[in-house]
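Re-run with default settings, no changes from the original entry. Doing this only to confirm the output is reproducible before filing.
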Amino acid sequence: MLASLPLPQPLDSRIGTCVLRRASRADADGIIALLADDPISASRGDQASDADRPAYLAALEDIIADDSNDLLVVELDGAIVGTLQLTSIPGMARRGARRLLVEAVRVRADLRSSGIGSAMMRWVSGAAAPALGAAMIQLTSDAARTDAHRFYERLGYTGSHVGFKYPVPVGLTSSSRPPSP
């Protein structure tokens, strides 16, 4: 957990005030549902099946236990409606600059374009990055997510790099979780 993050935090959206807070084990089902609610994630195996629940719970435990990571949720009227993961990365490049990596940003499908995602990302740049001493915020977005690309560009992000991934064969991983494509 990234202990210096100022949480919980109210977030204003067009549909009311939400609360951004750290995820707990009790939030697992809501987070899993958000992943499965996304067509691209679902096509990669995020189906919210009962058989996959142990893998998700193990991942959540790993994130909670890691001092360089945090998994956050947005709650509205008692329901989990958004999530994102943050990773603080120290680096040698750019004169030792620290980077804040943002991953798995999701807002429930029926609440997209409500301002929740924008509020989450404004909090990342205005509160989280400064609290962690990050000189840069970076994220990746699947090439097929053209709506997400426009969203990030509206917030001032620049598509400056090309990303590459290599799936490690399952037999070579030390984890029981399947690798991401």
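Helices lie at 28-36, 39-43, 53-65, 93-96, 116-132, 146-154. The longest strand covers residues 79-89.
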